TrEMBL record:
PANTHER family, alphabetized: [PYRUVATE DEHYDROGENASE (ACETYL-TRANSFERRING)] KINASE, MITOCHONDRIAL, PYRUVATE DEHYDROGENASE KINASE
Compartment(s) of residence: Mitochondrion matrix
Domain Branched-chain alpha-ketoacid dehydrogenase kinase/Pyruvate dehydrogenase kinase N-terminal: start-end pairs: 1-128
Protein name: Protein-serine/threonine kinase
Catalyzed chemical reaction(s): L-seryl-[pyruvate dehydrogenase E1 alpha subunit] + ATP = O-phospho-L-seryl-[pyruvate dehydrogenase E1 alpha subunit] + ADP + H(+)
Species per Swiss-Prot/TrEMBL record: Macrostomum lignano
Family: Belongs to the PDK/BCKDK protein kinase family.
Annotated Gene3D superfamilies: Alpha-ketoacid/pyruvate dehydrogenase kinase, N-terminal domain, Histidine kinase-like ATPase, C-terminal domain
Primary location recorded for the protein, binned into one broad class: mitochondrion
Amino acid sequence: MQEIHLLPESLVTMPSTKTVIGLYKQSFLDMLAFKDEPKRPSDGRLTDFTETLAQILERHREVVETMAQGVLELKEREGDLDTQTEAQVQYFLDRFYMSRISIRMLISQHVILFGPDLRNNRQIGSIDPHCDIMGVIDHAYNSARFLCEQFYLTAPSMTTQVIGLDKTTEFAYVPSHLYHMVFEIIKNSMRALVEKNEDNMPPIHVMICVGKEDLTI
């Protein structure tokens, strides 16, 4: 909230930016209602806290789009931004969106663990201790292929390769986060391949490198 006010005043005064500021102010006030709770609150207060977090999660669902709209409103009113202002806005947006991912991750984890909706008993909240990397990649590919075929009437195939002494492609991760990242990369790869290769379209090649302490796609 403090960093928002470091933005150019012209952007802060945009209607959509004001909407985002209002959302964060309301959520901050909602959290203040629990600041004096004991370390071990009653079941009733824990339920209230969880429900409040769920409301905040829903309230901020479209913050990314709303903040982007604020930038568009500024550009429509003032035209192209100067280099310094553009860099200032981009620096803020990068930090803002990264912070949002972290906050939503923490809130989602709490809501899933303490809320009534236990979607997958294998998962610990939103984290899957045995996230199936190949399964997520296949799911992302199939979703991207469907869109590609709808738009271009064709889509490239995909090959996968696992490199490393340990061929196990399972690790602790958030499946939904991994899916979104892989989906976007595969979707962009499909567009590039289709638009640049009318004939003899090569496949998308996905390489999974398994190390002792990490896994890289």
